[in-house]
Amino acid sequence: MVTVYDIARQAGVSTATVSRVVHGSDLVRPETRQRVVDVIERLGFVPDASAQGLSRRRKDIIGLVALERGADEIDIERSSLLYIDEIVHAVEGVLRGSEVSLLLSFGPRGESFQRRIRTLSGKVDGLIMAEDVLPRGELAALARRVPVVVIAGPADVAGLDTLAVDNAGGIQAVVSHLASAHGYRRLCFVGGPADSPDARQRLAAFGDVVRTTARCTADRPIHGDFSEASGSDAGRALLARPRLPEAVACANDQMAIGLLQEFRRAGVAVPGDVAVTGFDDIYPSRMTDPPLTTVSQPLRDLGSMAARRLLDRVGRIDRDDRSHGSDDRDDRSHGSDVPPTAEVLPTRLVIRSSCGCPAPGAG
User: Fold this and answer.
1) What is the CA radius of gyration of the chain?
2) From CA 39, how far away is CA 44, in angstroms rounded?
3) What is the pTM of this model?
4) Most trustworthy range by pLDDT among 45-49, 72-76, 158-162, 271-275
5) Which residues does residue 107 pair with via DSSP β-bridges, in sequence order?
6) What whole-number distance in Å separates Cα of residue 268 and Cα of residue 236?
7) From the DSSP assignment, how many helices (H) and strands (E) are in the chain?
8) What sign does the CA torsion over 46, 17, 135, 74 have?
9) Most Cβ neighbours (<10 Å): which of 64, 116, 164, 290?
């Protein structure tokens, strides 16, 4: 079992310094902090006092961590279930009736949130991560110490169970519908944050599809942060251009809703002057005026499948520990002979009125 004394000896620091690094103290010089973190990752140290002698005892707690997106919550973000809310509810649904509890942690990207995740990893049996919350090297090292399932995260980290959706297929369906059903030729994309794997895939897919669609062109894209407020900002940016595109595809529904509201304030008719589409199919997308054409992704399935996969992984490690006795192993992920899996769930186009189609039931 790796102890703070092992970390201190190999990093050439005192145990007090190791403790300060683990608990996020600002009293450690950056170069010393990095040296200690490197040793912690290499040795697979779990920074939790209760775990040092009992690292094989089930805690009956799993964690879910996700990034906070957007500086301010407005309108739908204060009153509706959004992307991460749907996932949390699905995870809770799997845990309901069991003795396992869910511990949530949300924060902005950066070292402070990463420290919180490292500390959290020693207090839970496993972690569900939404998006790309840790650098790839640190994520791989964490997955060797505690079971990890990643939703909508990087697909190129070895040893991870991952769940994602068919972003490219969803964008293909949107662009094909806009071009073939409505004849739109000048399109624009409102993308999400550059540090989001989903956002990068959707932007890349949009460019690919437009390039291969006859007579279609793409205006310069605008980038938001997945929040409604950034969708409003994108609307103002588009209104400041010499002319509007014929259709705007957004990387998520929240930004599309912000865009719709900004266009309405400016007197721009949707879909009369410009068509708008989203991605996610959150509940508020059905309640906008006009209702939002969007790509539906199986949010509840992502959450429930992630929870079941994590519980299965934790259970396998627990059974492995009992069959091998109570000796500690540095690499917890080797407690199962089942290799990690990467699964991509399908998406589907949901046609409503914002693209120019008749409202459902209109005759």
Assistant:
1) 23
2) 8
3) 0.79
4) 271-275
5) 67
6) 11
7) 12, 13
8) positive
9) 64
Burial 164-183 (b: 16+ CB within 10 A, else e): bbbbbbbbbbbbebbbeeee
Tell me how far apart the terminal alpha carbons of the chain are, to the nearest angstrom.
71
Confidence at residue 222, expressed as pLDDT on a 0 to 100 scale: 98
In whole angstroms, what is the distance from residue 293 CA to residue 278 CA?
A: 6
- Amino acid sitting at position 140: A
The predicted structure's pLDDT at residue 56:
43
- Show the tokens assigned to 24: 């996020």
**pLDDT tens digit sequence for 123-144:** 899 999 998 888 888 888 888 8
Q: What is the residue whose two structure tokens read 């662009």?
A: 175
Q: Which two tokens stand for residue 47?
A: 């920074």
Query: Can the peptide bond before residue 271 be classed as cis, meaning omega within 30 degrees of 0?
Result: yes
Q: Which residues contact 318 (CB under 8 A, 6 or more apart)?
A: 58, 335
Tell me whether residue 74 is exposed, middle or buried, using C-beta atoms within 10 angstroms of its C-beta: 0 to 12, 13 to 18, 19 or more.
middle
Element (H, E) at 259: helix 253-265
Distance CA 235, CA 110 (A): 29
- How far CA 244 is from CA of 4, 221, 258, in Å, comes to 60, 12, 16
Q: Assess contact for 154 and 136: CB atoms under 8 A.
A: yes
Amino acid at 48: D
pLDDT in tens, 24-35: 667 788 889 889
pLDDT digits over 240-267, tens only? 999 999 999 999 999 999 999 999 999 9
- Rounded CA separation 363/357 (Å): 12
DSSP string, 45-86: ----GGGTTTTTS---EEEEEEE---S---THHHHS--HHHH
Helix (H, G, I), strand (E, B) or coil at 336: coil
Write out pLDDT tens, residues 318-341: 555 555 444 444 444 444 567 888
Q: Which domains does the chain have, with CATH numbers?
A: 1-45 (1.10.260.40), 55-165+301-345 (3.40.50.2300), 167-297 (3.40.50.2300)
